[in-house]
Amino acid sequence: MSNLTFNQIIEIYLTSKDHVSKERDFYSLRHLQPFFNERDISTIKRIDIRSYIANRQKLGVKNSTINRELRFLSAAINFASLELEIALRNPVKGMMLKVEQNRIRWITQEEAKKLILAAEQYQRIPHLSAFIKLALNTGCRKSELLELEWSRVDIEHKLLTFESQHNKSGKLKTVPLNQSAINALLVLRDWTNWHYPKSNYVFTSQKGKRIVCFKRGFTAACKLSGITNFRIHDMRHTCASWLVMSGVPLTVIRDLLGHSSVTVTEIYAHLSPKEVQNAVNSLPVL
């Protein structure tokens, strides 16, 4: 018996691991903890995992979300086993659920202009509209942008830098900036220099603290612009979709978005019918 509780395993994982997805991990923990709180980890069986899954499904939680929570628990158990050099059985192994096909929701450039205008109307300070412009023009994740520091913004060379601790892939990533993204950053820089010149963060609130969420403002902007069924993460999908439809190779998009492999990027492949047609047209006429 390990005599280690669920809470102890989680603490070992959270305090010893350099996290690149803290918000998501704590969201998962918020749902796992009430169910497994203070349980000896060795007493948690597969039947307990099934029970947890059933409870979440009764609440209408999607399989993909449940899988994310289970992956967090599995990673914590595996990490503690490795860190403490003890053999811990992992009851989560083989328990992942089938998920629905990846959701691809993107908007047109005309819709994007309406969304940005609505953001400007909803919020006087430039942060929300600048956030939308940056997300659409860089394909960066929400956490990457909200945690972005000015020291990693190179306007002169038109680059954002994300080191291993700053992005999900755990690898160094540089993101090129187009003029729309640069304009958004210049507006934010002017605002920050005027109000809180000592702030390290690109997205600094009116109280001088880092902005951690745009959900309410983004939802309001979508409503004002008449855009439905559109989430913050869908701006990343939109950036990738625009690039694919412009003929940019999937491997280039993979590197820009920081996907682990081109297989992940292939979910956008159906948006490039012109490329397929051009390929077919290159075949000889028999």
Present the secondary structure layout.
Elements: H1 6-16, H2 22-36, H3 46-58, H4 63-84, H5 109-122, H6 127-138, H7 142-146, E1 153-154, E2 159-162, E3 173-176, H8 179-195, H9 215-225, H10 234-245, H11 250-257, H12 262-265, H13 273-281
Antiparallel strand pairs: 1-2, 2-3
Helix pairs in contact: 1-4, 2-4, 5-6, 5-9, 6-8, 6-10
Strand order of the largest sheet: 1-2-3
The percentage of residues in β strands lies in under 5%
Structural class: mainly alpha
Number of helices: 13
Distance between the termini: 72 Å
- Average predicted confidence as pLDDT: 86
The Cα radius of gyration reads 22 Å
What does this structure look like?
It is globular and about 55 Å long. It is 53% helix and 3% strand. With 286 residues, the chain is mainly α. Strands 1-2-3 form a three-stranded antiparallel β-sheet. The chain has helices at 6-16, 22-36, 46-58, 63-84, 109-122, 127-138, 142-146, 179-195, 215-225, 234-245, 250-257, 262-265, 273-281; strands spanning 153-154, 159-162, 173-176. Helix 2 crosses helix 4. It contains 13 helices and three strands.
Structural key phrases:
mainly alpha, 286 residues, 13 helices, 3 strands, three-stranded antiparallel beta sheet, 3% strand
